[in-house]
## 1
Amino acid sequence: MTEFRPGRFEILPFIVKNLLIINGLFFLAQQTFGNSATASFSFENVLALHAWQSDLFKPWQLITHMFLHGDFYHILGNMFALWMFGSILENLWGSKRFLTFYLICGLGAALMHLLFLSWELAPLARDYQVMMQSQANPQDFMNAMIQFGRKYNMEFAGSSDFVNYLQLNPDNPVTATKILELINLYYNNSLNTATLGASGAVFGILAAFVYLFPNTYIYLYFLVPVKAKWLGLLYFSYELFFALKNSAGDHVARWAHIGGAIVGLLIVITWNKTNKKTFY
């Protein structure tokens, strides 16, 4: 058998339907209240996922980040994949098992993302602490700030004339304070970058679908037929390549995608150890 052909199939099963509604309501609330300059509540600060090193990190963000999205195309892509592949899995497993699977995949994706984010931020945190430890001597502190700025390509460190001025006038409190403010802003922004979206959980769903129905045809752009196993392998390779490349300016949480896929695959392999009839 090469395709998934269920007998009793609900086009919009209970959990998928409610996940779509909840994500939609959160997105609507984000668009309505989240961008207001006078808003007293920040969706991203409170509910999006933050690095462990950040003061904004809260344990509940491991779950709540899955219900926030960055823009319309972000939520559209995730919700379409949730409906397209999640509906099949919920029909196969039932609502309770599917919801458990979805949440565990999202949680696993978040933990892997935090692990790699912590590893990426470790040099920044270390350099910042070394810089701050040199405050006792104005000259050493100014040199440390200049070195920090150069390493992280900060704008003030790109001007040789300005750097020379800083080195010759380390005791100028106004200049030193301004440079420190710029560094603190950069440091805090790096630590407080928010991660949001259901992509980790969705990648778990995709991995489970590919594992269970490897020969089912998926029509790219509704035209080009590709077997799920080849599409899944290509997509995972794509995410892994860019995660390892770690290009500057890539704001996609690649390791969360990979983490969700790995967790989803491990779960479905475990569940199917004693049931080989769900392979197609």
## 2
Amino acid sequence: MQDIAKEIVIKAQAGDTGSFRSIYEETAGFVYNVALRIVKRSQDAEEVAQEVFLNIYRNLKSFHFQSSFKTWAYRIAVNAALNHLKKMKREESRRGEFNEELNYNPVFSADKGLLSDKQEQEAQVNSLLDALNPEQRAVVVLRNLEGLSYQEIADTLEININTVRSRLKRARERLIALKGGQR
């Protein structure tokens, strides 16, 4: 995602709905993708994206250009997705027995048969991301799927750049161990 022009942000801060629409149109795709990679379900990602844009709208006047708008929006998206994930985990523990009784298998759907190769690859990526803790998952998504630099990730998550490196290293080690176990 390219950064939003300062003039557009200033107009949106002043209440120009057309400018806010421009911000939405420029950022909606990446917000959804970040959310989807963290929460892993499209319906949840849509919910997170709605939350993100409500937060951006409500807090736009507090954006003072101390970071890029892109970094600020990433921060809101990642935080909203991580918060949603925590909420989902709490709900999941309550639904655990029900899902177990259904014997849910993500690679097979009774009404669609086997998933396509692309869907199967996506399921494998999601399965690997599931093996990571939320903090590791966030840095992997931002680095490898969204292409952010280490410094941009540090700014987005409001953590030290060495923490970014550490989380990525641990995540990569975990993923390598998992891939080694699949052979």
## 3
Amino acid sequence: MGKVVGGMTLSLDGFVSDPHGDVSRLYPDLGELRNTEMLQEEIRTTGAVVMGRNSYYMGDPDSYLDDYEFQVPIFVLTHHVPEKKPKQTKTLTVTFVTEGVARAVAEAKAAAGDKNVILIGASTNQQCINAGLCDELHIGIMPVLLGDGLRLFEHIDAARLALEKIRVFESGARTDIWFRVVR
């Protein structure tokens, strides 16, 4: 069975976006990033995605068909299902889940089969970490200081989270560190 993999790219001072929600300074290498060994491995091993509503609406949902690296079923955590459904294919489908993070992860695991479920979004990661649903964290670190903004590890019960480093990737300015969640 696949794993539930959380994580995001952080600034050196621990932010996943600036105070206005801008992430561009964390991803100046997005074109190059798609070709890295690290991301290619994530793409190959991912069978489904769970993301929050805010992450889902960061761009045009219809653009996922052409531009999104994970062409797999996407499960969006939300309180309200939008009236307009995005464009979908046989491999990239979008399901809106209103019953909470545990339900979204369960549906994603069923869809992913033996592959991994990737978590997208700070709140989604926080909820899964706190609920004990996360098996690994993949953290990208960019050498920039944002000074303020949204933190990934805010609202986390740190006393309940133990990590073991399992891999390190370096590509350009980025350093990606993968951790196993110790149970």
## 4
Amino acid sequence: MKYKRILLKLSGESLMGDKQYGIDNERVKQYAEDIKAVHSKGMEIAIVIGGGNIFRGLSAEKSGMDRAQADYMGMLATVINSMALQDALEKVGLKTRLLTAIKMEQICEPFIRRRAVRHLEKGRIVIFGAGTGNPYFTTDSAAALRAIEIKADVVLKGTRVDGIYTADPEKDPSAQKYDEITFKEVYEKDLNVMDMTAFTLCEENDLPIIVFDMNKTGNFMKITNGEEIGTLVRS
């Protein structure tokens, strides 16, 4: 087993499937099945999900909303997504815990680092909601921070594309894919992997990132088996 403890970062948009907005239940079910397969090998899995399929703070700010207010609304959107994934995971027989950076006692536990680690050790899937609990920080930053706090071996960033390219492959058909790249090269080439705060956190703590296509069934398992799927970013 290549990794013992992993943090899986999913974008809110990934939960939309083919929809324009909201949550595609079939896509969430697929994720739950893939996560169950990996968990069955004894892997400890923590998850952070974005909220862009429901509400995006930066977009709201551009239309005139106060940035902090908009970001808090975005954090609540991530909790909705986290609850949807929690439900899907429990329907396939997994034990889960949802921990949020904003207290919501009726639906989840507050984030406490030692408690999160203990849940992982007991074999529960841990979902971190509400980002870092602070405005001006993205869920990428939350993923990097939580991964460092729980001493994860790697951040797996599940997206709609199968890795990092020289340009946007959805816009430029000549874009070339990187199988492996260093943090320094990402800076120099100005590639879009994560926001700079998240990326710097990973670099400073020597935490590798793998960007891969989570929408292709079986890719999550292949990565945890050590297959070279997606793009590895390392020191």
